[in-house]
Amino acid sequence: MSTAEGAAAAQRNVQPPPAQASLGAGVVVTDEAGRVLLGLHRSGVWELPGGKVEPGESVEEAVRELAEETTLVADAADVEVIGLVLDSITSARMTRMTAATAVRGFRGVPAVAEPDTIERWEWTDPGRLPEALFLPSAQVLRMWRPELPLPDGPFHRYTLGRLPA
Known about the structure:
- Its cofactor is Mg(2+).
- Keywords: Hydrolase.
- InterPro entries: NUDIX_hydrolase-like_dom_sf, NUDIX_hydrolase_dom.
- Residues 18-147 form the Nudix hydrolase domain.
- One of its GO terms (molecular function) is hydrolase activity.
- The protein has three helices and eight strands, in the order αββββαβββαβ.
- The strands form two sheets. It has a five-stranded mixed sheet.
- It has a single domain (20-159), classed as Nucleoside Triphosphate Pyrophosphohydrolase, CATH 3.90.79.
- It is α+β, with helices and mostly antiparallel strands.
- A hairpin with a 4-residue loop joins strand 2 (36-41) and strand 3.
- The N and C termini lie far apart (38 Å).
């Protein structure tokens, strides 16, 4: 490698590109009866628990959002990443990437931990989902259970699969 090539390689990717996307996680939590946990946002729409994936954090580690919002505790090892949903519902300049996740186990009883945003948490039968459903949450639920009659929108959905051994 020449000196010029070495200098160019040392400068590559020093600064991150301008933000064009935001990564979050939508968390599907079910109880022993198969009901899904939904929170009533102060705006009047129902949503899944979840939130932003912090820098240096894996999607599975973002399950901390579950505890921050509902007081339920789940381990990152109990998180399954189902797929990825892309949308630009809230901004034409920013793509929202939502990792659709499901937890296989949790501890505790749901409680409102952020009363300024969520009014209450309720276990809801997947066959009786409310009409006023936050569209990105609806898309995560669709990744979890494709047969659910949920509204569509300008979304791109990517189901994650495992390669055969």
